[in-house]
Amino acid sequence: MIATFTPLEWLLLAVAACAVGLSKSGMPAFGPIPAALFAAVLPARASTGAVLGLLLVGDLIAVRMYHAHADWGILRRLMPSVVVGVLLGVLVLWFADDATVRRIIGAILVLLVVLRVALLARERRQSAEPRPLPAGLAHVFGPLGGFTTMIANAAGPVMSLYFVASRLPVQAVLGTAAWFFLIVNAFKVPFSVGLGLMTPESLLLNLLLVPALLIGALIGWRVARRISPVWFERIVLVLTLASGLFLLLRP
Predict the structure, then answer these.
(1) Residue range 53-60: average pLDDT?
(2) What are 112-120's contacts with CB under 8 Å, separation 24+?
(3) What is the pTM assigned to this prediction?
(4) Within 10 A of 156 (CB to CB), how many other CB atoms are there?
(5) How many Å apart are CA 68 and CA 209, to the nearest integer?
(6) Which of 24, 74, 102, 105 could form a disulfide with 58 if both were Cys (CB 3.0 to 4.6 A apart)?
(7) Cβ-contact 165, 39 below 8 angstroms
(8) What is the per-residue pLDDT across 163-212, written as a single tens digit (0 to 9) for each?
(9) Cα–Cα distance between 224 and 26 in angstroms, integer?
(10) Chain-wide mean pLDDT for the chain?
C-alpha cells in the first residue's frame, strides 16, 4: 500500500505526523488532526493502527520534554475509569461501523466544549476567582478519554479540557498529558494488534514519517514556552470545537 501513495497523500501523511509532534510537545488539542488526515488516505480501521504507532513515538518525546511536571494525583484518579473506556472502545471497534464511531466522537467533543464554556460563564457570574473542576469528574472524563482514544486516537481534546479546567499550569498540563497518553497508548497496543490495526506495514510507515513528527515536536515545544494560560485554553476550546464539528459533518 505504501508504494501506491500519491505525492498529495504523502503530503497529507507528513502534515499528520507533524501534527502528532505538535500535539505531544506543546499543543495537545491538535490530537484529532492526525486521525482525520490518516483516515483520508488509509482505510478507516487501518488508519487507527497507523496513527497509534506515531503517537507512541510522540509520547516518548513528550515525556522526555515534560516528565518532571506531571500531576500524579490526577493520573491516579483517572486511570481506573480510563481502562473502562478503553475496553468499551474495543467493543465498539469490533461491532460498529466507521460512520457511527466518527459521529459519536464528534458529538462528545462538541458537548464538552459547550460544558466548559458554561462552566466558565458560571465562574464569571459567581466569583472573580475561578474554581477547579470537582475531583469526581475524573469518573466522567476518564471513560470518555479511554473510549475516544481507543476508537479514533482522538482523546487529546477531551483530556486537555479536563487538565486545563482543573486549573493546572500550562507546563503541568503538558507533563500530565505526556505521561497519561504514554501509559494509555501502550495499554492499547495489544488490543490494536489483536484487531489487526497495527501491522508491520503500518510500523514501516511510522518509521518513514518520524522526521516530520520531530519537526512538529520542535515547533510545539517552542510555542508552548511562550503561550499564556488564557490563550492556551482558548486555543484548546476552538480546536476541540472544530474537530468535533468536522467529525459530525464529514460525509
Answers:
(1) 94
(2) 112/144, 112/157, 112/158, 112/161, 112/240, 112/244, 113/161, 113/237, 113/240, 113/241, 113/244, 116/161, 116/165, 116/237, 117/237, 119/165
(3) 0.80
(4) 30
(5) 28
(6) 24
(7) no
(8) 877 778 878 887 898 899 999 999 999 999 998 889 999 999 999 999 99
(9) 5
(10) 83
Look-up of cell digits 488526515: 37
Banded pLDDT at 87 (limits 50, 70, 90): very high
Give the cell for residue 69.
511536571
